[in-house]
Amino acid sequence: MSEQNFLVELGTEELPPKALRSLGQAFADNLEQELTNAELPFAEVHWYAAPRRLAVYVTALAAAQPDKQLEKRGPAVQAAFDADGNPTKAAMGWARGNGIDVSEAGRLKTDKGEWLVHVADIKGKAATELLPAMVEQALSRLPIPKAMRWGDKSIQFIRPVHTLTLLLGEQLLPATILGVNSSRTLRGHRFMGAPELELDHADHYLQALENTGKVLADFERRKTIIKDGVAAAAAAAGGIADLDEDLLEEVTSLVEWPVVLTANFENTFLEVPAEALVYTMKGDQKYFPVYDAAGNLMPTFIFVTNIESKDPSQIISGNEKVVRPRLADAQFFFDNDRKAPLASRLEQLDSVLFQKQLGSVREKSERISALSGFIAAAMGADQAKAERAGLLSKCDLVTDMVFEFTDTQGVMGMHYARHDGEDEAVALALKEQYQPRFSGDELPSQDISAAVALADKLDTLVGIFGIGQTPKGDKDPFALRRAALGALRIIVEKGYNLDLPILIEQARALYGDKLSNAKAADEILDFMLGRFRAWYQDLGYDVDVIQAVLARRPTRPADFDARVKAVSQFRKLEASSALAAANKRVGNILAKFDGEIPAQVNPALLQDDAEKALAGQLSELSERLTPLFANADYNSALNELATLRESVDNFFDQVMVMAEDDALRLNRLSLLNQLRNLFLQIADISLLQ
Fold first, then answer.
1. What per-residue confidence (pLDDT) applies to 1?
2. Average pLDDT across the chain, whole number
3. How confident is the model over 70-120, as pLDDT tens digits?
4. Please, which of 133, 435, 483, 506 could form a disulfide with 457 given CB 3.0 to 4.6 Å?
5. Nearest of 322, 314, 257, 313 to residue 287 by alpha carbon
6. CA pair distance 39, 37, nearest whole angstrom
7. Whole-angstrom Cα distance, residue 681 to residue 629?
8. What is the pLDDT of residues 157-207, one digit of tens each?
């Protein structure tokens, strides 16, 4: 079977840069799935993407599907013919559906009888016949959040489509997709190279675009060129580039022919906090900042242009002129904001709404202050500093700098607090109060910061749940899931011995009579415990281990963490599966019993050696386990409990639990209840698979 390489390219208007990679990968994945489903053999699938094109290249694609035979079983022979041996209607209908006469049917004998059978030869369809529909299906399943129409067309896509090319080797495949006919025409760079070119073969795609069209269609190659070029340019300037991955991806998605250039700005702007300067360079202008070896921002930035200029100095000068007013704005805002102490802005927060039913941001700040102090005291940290940090936590929201550069909130609060002479722990807490901002983000570095960060997140959770606005589906306007997970991460990873119900109740009390949902406390606790499952699954823990611990509803996050780790280790022990099964059996027995089980085992009622041995071992273990449970040493406790395996196995092999004698039966149930309760001090291991 002959093989050829296949290319499809869709030429469009500028695609959304932050979605370019996902679009390219999805196009390739979707087409690969189509090929697999159609059983059309191929070697590899590659994706290419540039600002104005999406392409997929398939190597060693078979010319056609393989031929195959399909066995179609008909009615049983005794039902296929009447008493005179003539075909019945069932047999004739089946044969007609297969395009044969009943006399042409074969016979299939099995141990259950004999049936009519027809083996049909199915000829594989040619790739040229299949590919256009496959491409259309692959494009229809792209992750497009909002499609658009253009001109007078009813067709929708993420951006207007201008060209379509489907080449199998050198053969152009006729097709009309998204209102565009397939042709050999590709569009080159807007300002360099040929504006259009004709592609003669699928294998010449990248080379033709690069040499004739001045377009590098390979996303990864462009990214490498930019990354290496920016790093080299920074080194040449005596510094180190901030090669932020998100920015690198976005810049790669914005250019077809990357050219790396270096520019500078005045040293006087370095008096402004680096975060504000970096925000405008990266966020607004897509520039790469440069730092010296000590980590200080340098008056240099690196940018990527989409054109080769005969006079690069003109482009450099133009970019310097563009960024200068933005840096000047930052300098003005910084100087102006420092004329008033941060604390003086509390009154302005009265006019900033947190939530209509929950009041102003000033009220939130006062609640955060009180809750921060409460949490700090529980941590053994400085309560007064935590309260001060909580009170000032939102003051920078009404500064000119944060109003203009919103991503600098918290950071500017830290700088202004330092300028005002606030304690360094207080100033640092203003910056770290929003951490962790996202999955994998750093946690607050000190206890005061952690107290304020927890207070902020808990205040939001309690307030929004308290007015009944719980997250539904993917709608979470107050980012409550992120707040809950952030709070849990702080408590667990920093090892704070904090209890969620106590924190939730304290936060609820600070709202006074503003809250209307009487079930809020329970709902918040359930919501926060629910975050554990996804988080610990991401960490690699098995679902049944997590569920075994969640069944006990431990409300101290650090305690939950200790239990999960201990149960995860326990299940690696040889005795774990037998003890898990025994616990499940015990749980079922106790669940079916309708009555009161004695709290203590009566030694006088123990008859069989097996129950005496188990009772003695449980009594001995209970004493040894008490201090282990008190110290949350669950690993050691489960190792001790693992020694019960033989005694438990012997008990179930030799003892009739549900004895006819009431006293004997109750005593044995009490013994099993004692066994199960020891394990339940840690987790419900009966849930382990």
1. 47
2. 92
3. 778 888 877 778 877 888 888 888 888 888 887 878 887 887 788 888 877
4. 483
5. 322
6. 5
7. 7
8. 999 999 999 999 999 999 999 999 999 999 999 999 899 999 999 999 999
In angstroms, rounded to a whole number, what is the distance separating the alpha carbons of residues 410 and 100?
Answer: 79
Place of tokens 């002129």: 321
Q: With beta carbons less than 8 A apart as the criterion, state whether 98 and 75 touch.
A: no
How far apart CA 470 and CA 460 sit, in angstroms, is: 11
Task: Provide the token pair at 670.
Answer: 């009490």
Nearest in space to 226 (alpha carbons), one of 207, 204, 252, 205: 252
Q: Please give the Cα distance from 136 to 147 (Å, whole number).
A: 16
Q: Is the preceding peptide bond at 501 cis, omega within 30 degrees of 0?
A: no
Omega within 30 of 0 (cis) for the link into 436 = yes
Q: 6 near 109, Cβ under 8 Å?
A: no
Q: Supply the pLDDT for residue 153.
A: 80
Cβ contacts of 353 within 8 Å, gap of 6 or more: 359, 360, 361
Distance CA(332)–CA(328), nearest Å, equals 6
Measure the N-to-C terminal CA separation of the chain; round to a whole number of Å.
Answer: 48
Contact 184, 199 (CB under 8 A): yes
DSSP string covering 432-488, please? HTT---STTPPPPSSHHHHHHHHHHHHHHHHHHHHTT---BTTB-TT-HHHHHHHHH
Tokens at 566, concatenated: 């201990």
What is residue 195's three-state secondary structure?
Answer: coil
> What angle in degrees, to the nearest 10, is found between the helix axes of 557-570 and 520-538?
40
Element (DSSP H or E) covering residue 177: strand 176-177
DSSP letter assigned to residue 64: B
308 neighbors 257 (Cβ within 8 angstroms): yes
Cβ-based burial of 268 (10 A; exposed 0-12, middle 13-18, buried ≥19): exposed
More confident residue, 298 or 648: 298
User: Among all chains, which residue has been given the structure tokens 């040619």?
Assistant: 126
Q: What are phi and psi of 57, to 5 degrees?
A: -125, 120
Res. 533: pLDDT tops 80 = yes
Q: Tell me the two tokens of residue 158.
A: 């993420």
Q: Which residue has the tokens 């010296």?
A: 292
What one-character DSSP code corresponds to residue 63? S
Pairwise CA distance, residues 9 & 202, whole Å = 10
Total Cβ atoms within 10 A of residue 686: 20
Where do runs of H (alpha helix) occur along 237-360? 245-254, 274-278, 312-337
The dihedral over CA atoms of 59, 60, 62, 66, expressed in degrees to the nearest 10, equals -110
Integer Cα distance of 205 and 46 in angstroms = 12
Q: What is the 3-state secondary structure (H, E, C) of 101-145?
A: CHHHCEEEEECCEEEEEEEEEECCCEHHHHHHHHHHHHHHCCCCC
